[in-house]
Amino acid sequence: MEYLSARRRHPLAALVALLIALAATGGLYAALAPTQRAQANPAQSLAIDQGKRLYDVGCASCHGPSGQGSHNGPSLVGVGAAAVDFQMGTGRMPAQQPGAQVPKKRPVYPQPQIDQIAAYVASLGPGPAIPNPSQYTPGDMANGGQLFRTNCAQCHNFAGSGGALSEGKFAPELRGVSPKHIYEAMLTGPQNMPSFPDTTMPEPQKRDIIAYVTSATDPATFPSYGGLSLGWLGPVPEGLFGWIFGLGVLIAASIWIAARTAKARKK
Fold first, then answer.
1. In this structure, are residues 206 and 183 in contact, taking their beta carbons and an 8 Å threshold?
2. Would the pLDDT of 131 be above 90?
3. Can you list the domains of the chain with their CATH numbers?
């Protein structure tokens, strides 16, 4: 006892006790914490390996060999599989050329290869997963219209026709976009769009917005009751049409009336 009591007063006793406590904590964590891929699904592991090969060929030149990003592309660590499925499923990635915004085009990869690349990117860090069909089944269209006009119409137009933004950017048209990609866009916030995670916009509200967008962009359910819609782009093209066509008709009618009057006076 006297020996331990003497050692306890040693200047390094506190440091030694701290090291022993840290070693014990680390050992318990290593013994009890689950390994990252302890029970990995063999099919999932195969998809990740195949996705890595596809990634190295088509994506690594911009996003880095490990998804860490570069001056040509952002980091993919933590973006999740949903972001990959949206960007590649809509043909935005791989990008044809750098620019203010990458436009939609025909997909380069088939869906099975997109799923493999998405599995690899998801393994780099936790992020939103690809939604299942029950998550993007259309909900209440009336409530979705209110939510869309509050959160989305400022950029995408009240009818989903898109619109211009600053510095050469734009909000794309929503006509023809699948419900899955609409859900993924709200979940991940691609390019200039803000993200709406479930903590900000719960899943039922996303489903309501999908119901409104799919209805508003379908001519069969949202016809142009007022005649020529001019792309549903709002008052600017409508006013321009009124000035050019309407005012042009009035000027032409005035010239015709003046010519007829002058001809009648000559007689």
1. yes
2. yes
3. 42-124 (1.10.760.10), 133-216 (1.10.760.10)
